[in-house]
Amino acid sequence: MKFFIIGIADHPGLEPLLRRVERKADELGVSLVFEPSLAPTVGRDSAAPEEIEGDVALVLALGGDGTLLRAARLAAPRGIPVLGCNLGRLGFLTMVSEDELEAAMSMVAGGDYELEKRLALRVRVVPNGSSGPDGRSFYAINDAVIHKSGFARLIGLRVLADDDEVGHYSADGIILATATGSTAYSLSAGGPIVSPTMEGIVATPISPHTLAVRPVVFSGDTRISVELLSGDHDLQLTVDGQPGCRLSVGDRVEVARSRHAVGLVRLPRHSFFTVLRRKLRWGDVREHPTPPSGGNEGKPEC
Prior knowledge:
This protein is an alpha+beta fold. It has two domains: 2-118 and 261-280, Rossmann fold (3-Layer(aba) Sandwich), CATH 3.40.50.10330; 121-257, Probable inorganic polyphosphate/atp-NAD kinase, domain 2 (Tumour Suppressor Smad4). It has six helices and 18 strands. Helix 1 (14-28) runs parallel beside helix 4 (101-109). The longest helix has 15 residues, at 14-28. It is elongated. Mean pLDDT is 86; it is low at 297-302.
């Protein structure tokens, strides 16, 4: 069995963590290959992430959600599962903490885990006046966002689901998110939390200029098209928080299911809602108990 290791090379706590990974791998009889930026730290074999071979059983991402997304973009087209170990602050997508890493490695080596297949998106930009496949394409695990990069001015958008017009939006932009991305930017913009194994696409407008426009959840088999009707300059497409490309009025952005689903390792006692409660305080009222009826708790003194 072989694990491929991806991480943040300049993280202050990475070297001792890599040593722990090496010791546990030796104990389990697992061979390790590191991305080139990590190889000098451990003095082991390295390979460019693009050269991941088919005999790799797991990509282990050491970092935050950004590192996990980078690992998933490389692993998903090759059908390799990904396990994230959180070295950042929130790390909502990463499955385990540093303290849990060795136990997680043992579970994966022993087959004691579930593989969650998450829907990902193929994002294609069709330039103004073009009808053919001559635009740029991107792979999104969380979301694709159409927005302004300069002044806070409204964008005119026309949204279609397959060939059915959804409506015209006047907003700061729009977020097209997977269920995985529903707890990211879309959530901050007022979008719903979607169970991660649900194959849906969430269209969340950013600060729409009308109370009548609300987020919509589409089937994962829907092809969503967003036509740019107005917006002057500095229109941008951002994919998973990374720069995608500049857009112009008249361009069309098409979002549909990618044929490469993302495989994330899910360990026992690490359910989605457990993580939601622990990291986002979802449904947790224990931190702010309600005073007993008739009590004086919380009343200001006169």
